[in-house]
Amino acid sequence: MRRDGERIRAAREREREAEARAAQEAERERLRLEDEERRERRRRDREIWRRWARRSLVPDEPDQGLRVTVRIPSGQRRMRVFPASAPVKAIYAFVETLSIPADQSPADDPTSPPEGYEHEWGFELATTFPRVVVPCAEGTVVGDVEVLRGGVVLVVEGSADDRENDEDEDEDEDED
Predict the structure, then answer these.
(1) Are 105 and 50 in contact (CB under 8 A)?
(2) What is the distance between the alpha carbons of residues 164 and 159, in angstroms, rounded to a whole number?
(3) SMART domains under this entry (predicted)?
(4) b/e sequence 1-18, b meaning 16+ C-beta within 10 Å
(5) What are the structural domains of the chain?
């Protein structure tokens, strides 16, 4: 009789442990799905923001202005003329818009940014030699930045996509 009681207690304990493991696994899965959903929403908002920026932040190319060539991490170069009165933010926005697929027409770009989305530049623009970072400070205009006068080649250091991948890897390491 005593043995039967011990077996019953052991069986109940195993059952409780199995239920606890199942609950922990379900919670991990729920958190993983929430995180995946959050990342997807952030990616979608970033794409919408880039298209809005193309329409709203990147000025039309003037006949005359400051010529800026941007070398992106893939090695490609993109040249564009900016009015001296354009904010430096316009150059950063231009770089962001380079990742918009060609099949997405500017005519279809949204007229407002995604609600609640706070954009972060995932890169810096810098000259090659001497290395000078072009600051993206609020209120700074292209014509006021010494290194941009007379035309310049800027290198994109880092990218939003690289930053996202780094964050994903960091979070994966935390789970181990």
Answers:
(1) no
(2) 9
(3) UBX
(4) eeeeeeeeeeeeeeeeee
(5) 1-176 (3.10.20.90)
Q: Based on DSSP, count helices (H) and strands (E) in the chain, helices before strands.
A: 3, 5
3-class DSSP state of 3: helix
Cα(95)–Cα(123) distance, rounded to whole angstroms?
9
**Cα dihedral 126/127/132/138 (nearest 10):** -50
pLDDT in tens, 124-136: 999 988 889 999 9
Q: Give pTM, 2 decimals.
A: 0.76
Q: What span, in angstroms and rounded, lies between the C-alpha atoms of 94 and 70?
A: 9
Specify the residue for token string 């997405």: 104
Place of tokens 């890897």: 169
Would you say 109 and 55 are in contact if contact means Cβ atoms under 8 Å apart? yes
Select from 106, 75, 72 the least CA-distant residue to 92: 72
**How far is Cα of residue 64 from the mean position of the Cα atoms in its chain?**
32
